[in-house]
Structures are given as C-alpha cells and as structure tokens.
Amino acid sequence: MILLMLTVSACAMAQDSTVKKKRAKVAVVLSGGGAKGMAHIGALKVIERAGIPIDIITGTSMGSIVGGLYAIGYNAHVLDSVVRVQDWSYVISDRENLSEQTLEDRRRQNTYFYTMGLTLGKKNQTDGGLIKGKNLAELFYKLCEGYTDSLDFSRDLPIPFACVATNIIDNSEVDLHSGYLPQAMRASMAIPAAFSPVRVGDKVLVDGGLRNNYPADIAREMGADIIIGVTVQGAPKIADDMGRTMSILSQIIDVNCKNKYDDNLAITDVPIRVNTTGYGAASFTYNAIDTLIRRGEEEAMKHWDELIALKQRIGIDDSFVPVRLSPLSPDVMTERKKVTSYVFENMTPMDERFLRRKFHLKAGDEIDPQREQRLTTAMRVDLFYQTAECRTVADGDGVRVILIAGNRKTSEVGAGFRYDLEEHAAVQFGASFPLAEQSTPLDGTITLRLGKRMKARAELTLHSLSKDRPKISYTFSRNDVDIYIDGDRDYSILYFQHQTELTPLNFNVRNFNFTLGARWDYLHYKDKLLSSRSSDLPLENDHYISYRATVNYNSENDWNFPSRGARFKAEYAYMTDNFAQMGGKAGMSDLNANWRMSFPIGNRLSIQPMAYGRMLFGANIPLVFSNAVGGSWFGHYVEQQMPFPGIGYVEYVGRHFVALQLQAQQRMGDKHYLQVAVAGAQQAPRLEEFLDHKTLLGAKIGYFYNTLVGPVGATLGFSSKTRKANFYINLGFEF
Question: Distance (Å, rounded) from C-alpha 567 to C-alpha 609?
C-alpha cells in the first residue's frame, strides 16, 4: 500500500513538473507586400531582442520568403545582410549573369529592355508571365542549401513553417506544409502576369496574397497559442487616390488581398502594422530596403512593452534565451565543395560532352556558387536551354553535381526603344536561334533597327570548345546623317551601306576580346542635300576591302554608370579598294583607341579620366570614313564617330585627333546620377602640324535616371568649336 502511494505521488509530481515546463506556443505571421515585406526583417530583430521564442512561422509572398529562410536558420541580422548584398534588379528579372560571358553578349543585354526565350511546339512550364523567375528560383535554391529535397515543413525544418499560394484553376487557397521549400516560396510570391506561375501536379499556383495575405489562421491550425503578426499593407485608398493606372491596379490587388485580413488580424495577440507609405511592391533599391527594415524595427519597438508582457503569458522569465537551431550564414553563397561526380539530366550526349570539355569537368573538382552560375549560364547561352539548374547533393565527403536542362529554346527575342532630340524615336528588335544540335553549337542572330538610321543584320556564330567564337555577318544600313560645321548643319547625306565581315578569330576570355578578320563594304549614295561650300564633296558609289584587328577589354562594374573598373578598345584597320591599294596607292591605315578608368571616391562619387583618338594615314581617305566627333557615344551616328562634350551632332575634324576627358560622376539615391565632364583635344590634317592648331575645349553637365528600359536624362554642353550651348535629351539604351 505504501509502495502504491509512493508510485502515485511520484507520477503526480512528474505530471506537475511537465505542466510547469509546458509553455504556450508562439507563432510569427508575416504578410505579403513585395519589397515592402523587407520590413519583416526589422520586426524580427526586435522579437529576437525581446527574447521571444518562435515555435511556428507562416507567411505569404515576401512573408513566405523571409519566413521560410528564418525557419531554416537565418536569424534576422543575417537576413539583413543577405537582402542588402543582392542585386535585386538582376534577381527579379530573367537576365543572364554574363560576368563570365563575352563582351558582345553583355552589350546585347544592355541594348534591349526586354528579352524572352521562346520554345515553339512544346509546352513550357515557365510560361505565363513577363518574368519567368529563373533568377529568383536560383537564388532560393542557393539560400536553402541543405533543405532542397521534398520535406515536411513542420517536421523537417528547425522551426515549423507554412506558406500560402493561390490555385488559379479554381481560385482556391493552397496551404503549403510540405514539398520543395524553394518552390513553395517561389509559388507564394508569383504575382499574376508579372511572374510565371508554378505548376505542381494539376495546380497552377500564383501569389497567395490573392486568397490569404496574412495567414494567422494557418498558424492557429498549426497549434499556435499566441500570434505575433507583422503586416505591411498601406492605408485604405479613397477615390481621390485613383488618378493613375498603377494606383488603380494597386487598389485591385489590395482589395483582393483583404479576403481574410480582418478576421486574421482579430486573432493576433500583438499586431505590428508597419507604415510603408512612399514605397511599393517593387521598391527593391538599396535605400528603400534600408528604410523599410528600419521602419519595421521602429514599429516593433513601439510594441516593446507588449512583447515583454507576453513572456508571462508564454510561461518564461527574463532569463530565458531562445535557442536557434542549425544557424545559417551568408557563407552558403561562397562555400567551396569537393565534387564526387557529375550527373546530366534532360541533355543530349553532345551537350554533355560540350560542357565537360568547355569546363574540364571531372571528379575531384571543387565547386562554389560562382562556378555553378557559370555552368547554368553556359547552358542557357551556349546551349540555348530555356531553363538550367545546377544542384548539389551531399555524397560522402563531397557533393554530386546535377545539371538539369529545361526545354531548348527555338529562339530568343529582344526589344529596345529609345528617343533623343536628334533622331527622335527608334526601335530595335533582335532574335537569336540555334541552327543545329551538334557537338559545336552554331547559332544565328538577326537584328532589325527602325528609325532615321535603319539597319538589318544577320550573323552566324560558332560556339567552339575553345575560347574562339568564329563568326560571319552581313549588315545593311540606311544611313541618313546630318553633318554640322561649327555647330550649324551644313549638309545631309542619305546612303545605303552593305557590309560583310568574316572573323575567323574571335577570342574571348571573360572581360577580354580579340578579333582578327576581313570586311567588305559597298556604299551607295541615294540623296545629297549639299550647301554651297560643300557642293564639290567627292561622294561616289564605291566598295572597300579592309583587314582588321581589334582588342577590347571591359572590367567596369556597370555598363552605363560605372564607378570602378576600366574600359579599353584599340583597333587597327588597313582599307583598300582592290585588296592591296586605295586609288592606285597604298591603302588607308586607321588606328584608333579609347581608354577609360573609373576610380571610386567614397560610396557615391567616382572620377573617370578617359583618353581617346584616331589617326588616319594614306594618300586617299574616303570622306565617309574621315574622323568625326560629337554626341555622347563612340560610333553612334557613324562608326568612326568619337564623343566630345559640347558637340551634339556629327562634325568632321582633321585626320589626326587625340582627346583627353575628365568626368566626375555623383550617384544620388540609388538610380540618380549627376555627371560633369571637361575635355581638351588636338586635331590636324597632317601629323607634323599636330601641335600647331588651337586646342579644342568642351564641357558638359548631365542628369540621368537609370530605369529598367535604359537611362533617361539630359545634358547641357558647350565647346569652343561650336561656340554655342548644346542641349540633348536621351531616353533609353543606346543602339
């Protein structure tokens, strides 16, 4: 009897101990809101600081991304670092990372504001939006390293997690408690029409905000006793706010996202509503992210007393310190691993052989995220696959690398638009396509430009296993050019130019390109509007054969507004009209070069000295190939054109021309730039008279805003040659 009483007493004490140890479960719920969801990170910092344990986390859209990463071990301070180092203009686009590709590929990417891969005749799982989300998916897989298999999010993650998507087949809510974590995060933020949906079985999943933008009810279903919620939805709009198209679209989205919002907010113990006024779903600039994280932290601090009081309800005291399981860090983005083997999926044996030989793939290699990026880019660019994935799976002491190819693109098309005061509107279209599936890929490119200067170009490029990309091209140009003398338009010429170029040596190594080839030009003059002083210009139809060698190097960190790096180009051409001579004498020699360096001074200011020039030698120099200066770019109106501050259009100068320019570039905010440049130049018809002529001086000041469709801005300049101010407006990429 005594033994029985002792046993019962011990069981009661054990049960009482269990009750005492048991505490309330806490869930954190994070709403959707695009870039505004960066505020969640600031709020999480305060929750951590208060010592509140997080037992469950749920989220929608951006809340699913922040929540999913938090659930696998990224604390708030690490998330802060992760989001700040991303190039979001790249991440939320389908642009390729061309840092390891050719300069020509980079130039093409910075010409078109929109490119799209097409796969005709096959169902493409990534169709359905302006952005396929390839780069987003790739980033999620990298950040979720170790959690990319099919998982139960409640059982297999350090913190139980769930997120929400919408099945647009029947407009139903889909609560994701299991599956592939990166895919679930990607589906939850697939804004309809903007991002392609994610197809899972017979479901077509888009942004969960359409059905449940603040999933507190799911947290309750998962066993949460206490809910801390963070929302970033703005104040309700009124009729006066509906003045613009984007405000109307935003209101439609906000109304749809209100489905369960009020009911879910009512079951929230500590609602943290962040003021995101002034920012939208696409505010991914560095300054916007910084401000939104700070606002999230500030708003959460207003609830500090509530959070501290919450500890008593939870059943913990001030000495309690939450334990973070499997803490992760940004090192996952740079870690190197030993490769045990390579696996190729959905790829032809010829493509597999191409990749093995191009990258020297073999067991025993080391791989890091940068090498993974180069492999996927090569699969997309060289082998023309619509999508490409590089996955690593633990295999003993190393990893097995799995290269997965999607459908092969039948073509890739691009479109560009620009407007300026000289040529007004112009559009350019481009299309690239593979010509044959063979051991050495061969692709074709067609370019069509419509505007005052019309152009059609066809090019064939061989992607050899070496660094050489031999190519052949044909270009037809309709050139309508106004020629100025001392700032006044003197005459206009309209001519057709047929050009065929063979480049057997087109050597490429990352930032470096060397070409060697031959070119044939035929010029046919259609119309000449000449002034009295230019009536005797020698403009006759003629053809020319030239031999050319070019060295091109570019390590600048930005194509349009670099703050560091260097750009160098030098070319020598020997031009003839009969393969050896020009007009019965030695051919014309053309030596030109330009070199620009960018030196950062602090975080926003950079200094850019530049030296450039062109020297022409020979008894016969065709007028159409004479030295020309003006504008802001090299080769914009005519191929031999060199820029010069204060000269807006094309002006001919002497056979020998050398210039020095110094430019200061100040970045204001994330995308605003102020540029001030001064330049001096010497020119002369004969080299021995080079220093006898008066120095040409010029200066300009310009403001630009860097948009997704290209730079938008204006410059005001003055030069000693024109003796008048020049005002120029440019909208869009240069082509």
Answer: 11
Cβ-contact 469, 475 below 8 angstroms: no
Q: Which residues contact 119 (CB under 8 A, 6 or more apart)?
A: 386, 407, 408, 409, 410
Residue 145: count other Cβ atoms within 10 Å of its Cβ. Answer: 18
Classify residue 256 as exposed, middle or buried by CB count within 10 Å of its CB (0-12, 13-18, 19+): middle
DSSP one-letter string for 115-183: EEEE-TTS--TT-SEEE--HHHHHHHHHHTTT--SEEETTTSSSS-EEEEEEETTTTEEEEE-EEEHHH
Q: Looking at residue 31, what DSSP letter applies?
A: -
Q: CB of 241 within 8 A of CB of 277?
A: no
518-557: pLDDT as tens digits: 999 999 988 777 665 666 677 789 999 999 999 999 999 9
Query: How far is the CA of 253 from the CAs of 210, 211, 247, in angstroms?
Result: 7, 11, 10
Query: CA-to-CA distance for 73 and 347, rounded, in angstroms?
Result: 35
Neighbours of 20 (CB within 10 A): 9
Return all residues near 43 (Cβ < 8 A) that are at least 6 apart.
Answer: 230, 272, 274, 296, 297, 299, 300
Q: Which residue, chain included where needed, has tokens 């059609």?
A: 456
CA distance 297 to 284: 18
Contacts of 100 (CB under 8 A, 6+ apart): 373, 374, 377, 510
The set of residues, in sequence order, having a beta carbon less than 8 Å from that of 445 and lying 6+ positions away, is 430, 431, 432, 457, 458, 459, 461
Alpha-carbon torsion angle 237, 242, 248, 250, nearest 10: -30
Q: Residues, the chain, total?
A: 735
pTM above 0.85, yes or no: no
Strand runs labelled E in 119-160: 129-131, 150-152
Helix or strand run (H / E) with residue 234: none
Which candidate, 146, 504, 500, places its Cα nearest to that of 328?
146
Average pLDDT over residues 584-596: 96
What does the pLDDT look like over 17-52, one tens digit per residue? 333 357 899 999 999 999 999 999 999 999 999 999
Instruction: For residue range 640-695, list pLDDT tens digits in order.
Output: 999 999 998 899 999 999 999 999 999 998 889 999 999 999 999 998 888 888 99
Question: Is there a contact between 34 and 280 (Cβ–Cβ < 8 Å)?
Answer: yes
Residue 179: which of 197, 201, 202 has the closest Cα? 201
Cβ pair 343, 403 in contact under 8 A: yes
Report CA Rg, the chain.
31
Q: What is the DSSP letter of 655?
A: S
Instruction: Give, rounded to a whole angstrom, the gap between the first and last alpha carbons of the chain.
Output: 98
| Among the listed residues 580, 582, 517, 523, the one whose alpha carbon sits nearest the alpha carbon of residue 550 | 517
Reduced 3-state DSSP string for 377-428 = HHHHHCCCECCEEEEEEEECCEEEEEEEECCECCEEEEEEEEEECCCEEEEE
Q: 301 pLDDT exceeds 80?
A: yes
Please say whether the dihedral angle defined by the alpha carbons of residues 280, 284, 285 and 287, taken in this order, is positive or negative.
positive
Nearest to 116 by CA among 106, 104, 103, 128: 128
C-alpha 90/C-alpha 94 separation (Å) is 7
Measure Cα distances from 414 to 127, 435, 733 in Å: 16, 18, 13
Report the distance separating Cα 693 and Cα 710, nearest Å: 39
Backbone angles phi, psi at 529, to 5 degrees: -115, 95
Rounded distance, CA 240 to CA 7, Å? 74
Six-digit token string for 307:
């959070």
A 10 A CB-CB count for 619 gives 12
Cβ neighbours of 587 (radius 10 Å): 24
**Greatest Cα-to-Cα distance within the chain, rounded to the nearest angstrom:** 130
Tokens of residue 731, six digits: 């909208």
Tokens coding 524: 């046919």
If phi > 0 it is left, if psi is from -120 to 50 it is alpha, else beta; for residue 732 that is: left
d(CA 506, CA 548): 12
